[in-house]
From TrEMBL:
Name of the molecule in the record: Nitric oxide reductase transcriptional regulator NorR
InterPro entries linked to this entry: AAA+_ATPase (IPR003593), AAA_lid_NorR (IPR058031), GAF (IPR003018), GAF-like_dom_sf (IPR029016), Homeodomain-like_sf (IPR009057), P-loop_NTPase (IPR027417), Sigma_54_int (IPR002078), Sigma_54_int_dom_ATP-bd_1 (IPR025662)
Any one Gene Ontology BP term: regulation of DNA-templated transcription
Superkingdom assignment: Bacteria
GO molecular function, one term: DNA binding
Pfam families: AAA_lid_14 (PF25601), GAF (PF01590), Sigma54_activat (PF00158)
Keyword flag ATP-binding: yes
NCBIfam families from the UniProt entry: PRK05022.1
Gene3D superfamilies: 1.10.8.60, 3.30.450.40, Homeodomain-like, P-loop containing nucleotide triphosphate hydrolases
The entry's keywords: ATP-binding, DNA-binding, Nucleotide-binding, Transcription, Transcription regulation
Sigma-54 factor interaction domain residues: 190-419
Length: 512
């Protein structure tokens, strides 16, 4: 009991320290782990029926990027509904969201002992702390009273962080809510903790609640549309429409009508009056994606709207006043396009009142790991899998790849890998390893037997299932030979559960 009191005192001291929220949260979990001798713990924020990890201890690095819908995770739902300490029986058949995600464990191990501490402030749920262990009797000696003290201290720590952020927002005269909460509150979340992402979020926060036009630039696939959504949701126009228009997909013959509308009889096929995107976005925001693809003629008409605030439908002599904020995006360097005569200089200066650059994924330090977790959880839900784990080797490979297609490419790669793993697995616990990823050879050149390229898959006329079985059989045979016919060593080399490997080998007729 003395040690427990010392741990409580340490948590209480951390609450009054000058630590930032992230450090305070990590210290909190470290103290809990020392006190309860658990294998893993997590501090989760609760918002809009989702739990989002703010800090973890003992879990795989990608967990911090995952977002857990309580409708998809019965244990988390039980914690959210309980209002008090939840002890799950060691033989509970409810799947644990962290099964297979304990750090430094090569085999797919299942959590046996689990406790949920709901974090309540004035009877309102703001988060939870989850505590897990492999020993089914690990937490039997701790009373609910002791656990409630930890829960109360953790709730105070989280609430203090939320209040501090609200005060910071108020002092900077921002009407946006806490960054912990804004993402889920408005359904716009940008995953990342790198310096580049912090700068991006700061720029969004600075300009969002103004009426300035914004020009979003960046490579293909970096998430410019997500930035536009964040700008709208954090603005005073958030309750009005955000209207999207892809300028690159507009045929010249209909582009003007799409932007400004037309009246009945204005041209062949105009059988009724029709609003354009500007009118649809009146009092809201118009997002013009791929703005660099607009013709010079349309650029001139767009400039007039920005200058005078009115539009003219095709075939109509009347002018219609609109109050529309413009957010534009492009993967081109518009200043160069201006020099080459492809883009109007006056329109460029009107649009780029506040330019925002979205960094490419290769410049975002460890954000790839968080995004891998985020997309893995999305894939798990879509495939109705119990769990999806990414091996440390695969995480390393994904972090060393240059990602020319950025976040869009990463999402597709994770989705494809999950589908391949699902096709290969005999149960719903999926593990994504290096050979599931069809990315450039230079990223995985040190692991030649694990390479599966897109070209390889396209050369399989016998179908995916047969090709997958053949590939697995060859890979297992090679690993079995290299590990001196030892199945346990083979399982470790392939980063799979030994039991699963035995069952798979039997199905592939590699053993009796």
């Amino acid at each position: 009991m003395k040690n427990m009191k010392e741990e409580w005192a340490q948590i209480a001291l951390d609450l009054t320290s000058g630590l930032d929220s992230k450090d305070r949260f990590e210290r909190l979990l470290s103290t809990i782990r020392n006190a309860l001798k658990c294998d893993a713990s997590a501090l989760l924020l609760f918002k809009n029926q989702y739990f989002s990890p703010l800090a973890t201890n003992g879990l795989d690095s990608d967990v911090i990027g995952r977002r857990f819908a309580i409708s998809q995770h019965p244990r988390l739902e039980a914690i959210a509904r309980a209002g008090d300490i939840v002890r799950f029986p060691s033989d509970s058949d409810l799947p644990d969201p962290y099964d297979g995600l304990i750090k430094n464990k090569k085999e797919l191990l299942h959590v046996h002992s689990c406790i949920g501490l709901p974090l309540l402030i004035n009877e309102r749920l703001i988060g939870a702390v989850t505590i897990d262990a492999f020993d089914p009797d690990q937490f039997n000696s701790f009373t609910n009273k002791e656990l409630r003290i930890i829960s109360a201290l953790a709730a105070t720590s989280l609430n203090t962080a939320l209040l501090m952020e609200r005060l910071e927002n108020q002092s900077s005269e921002s009407s946006t809510s806490s960054s912990f909460e804004t993402a889920q509150q408005n359904n716009v979340e940008m995953i990342g903790e790198s310096k580049a992402m912090k700068e991006l979020k700061a720029n969004i926060k600075a300009v969002a609640n103004t009426e300035l036009s914004v020009l979003i630039t960046g490579e293909t696939g970096v998430g410019k549309e997500l930035v536009a959504s964040a700008l709208h949701e954090q603005s005073s126009r958030a309750n009005q429409s955000l209207v999207y228009l892809n300028c690159a997909a507009l045929p010249e013959s209909v582009a003007e009508s799409e932007l400004f509308g037309h009246v009945k009889g204005a041209f062949t096929g105009a059988i009724s009056n029709r609003k354009g995107k500007f009118e649809s976005a009146d009092n809201g925001t118009l997002f013009l994606d791929e703005i660099g693809e607009l013709s010079l003629a349309l650029q001139a008409k767009l400039l007039r709207v920005l200058q005078y605030g009115d539009i003219q439908r095709i075939g109509d002599d009347n002018h219609i006043k609109v109050n529309t904020r413009i957010i534009a995006a492009t993967n081109k360097t518009l200043s160069e396009e201006v020099k080459e005569g492809n883009f109007r200089a006056d329109l460029y200066h009107r649009l780029s009142v506040f330019p925002i650059f979205v960094p490419p994924l290769r410049e975002r330090e460890n954000d790839i790991t968080l995004l891998v977790g985020y997309f893995a959880e999305k894939s798990r839900v879509k495939l109705r899998a119990s769990s999806i784990r990414i091996t440390p080797e695969a995480i390393r490979v994904l972090n060393t790849y240059p990602w020319p297609g950025n976040i869009r490419e990463l999402e597709h790669v994770i989705s494809r890998a999950a589908v391949l793993s699902r096709a290969q697995s005999i149960d719903s616990d999926l593990t994504l390893s290096t050979w599931h990823f069809s990315i450039q050879k230079e990223a995985i050149s040190d692991e030649p037997i694990h390479q599966v390229t897109e070209d390889t898959l396209l050369e399989c006329p016998q179908g995916l299932r047969i090709a997958t079985d053949e590939f697995q059989a060859k890979l297992i045979q090679q690993a079995y030979k290299e590990n001196k016919q030892n199945w346990a060593a083979t399982a470790r080399a392939l980063q799979v559960d030994t039991g699963n490997l035995h069952r798979l080998a039997k199905r592939l007729k590699l053993k009796e």
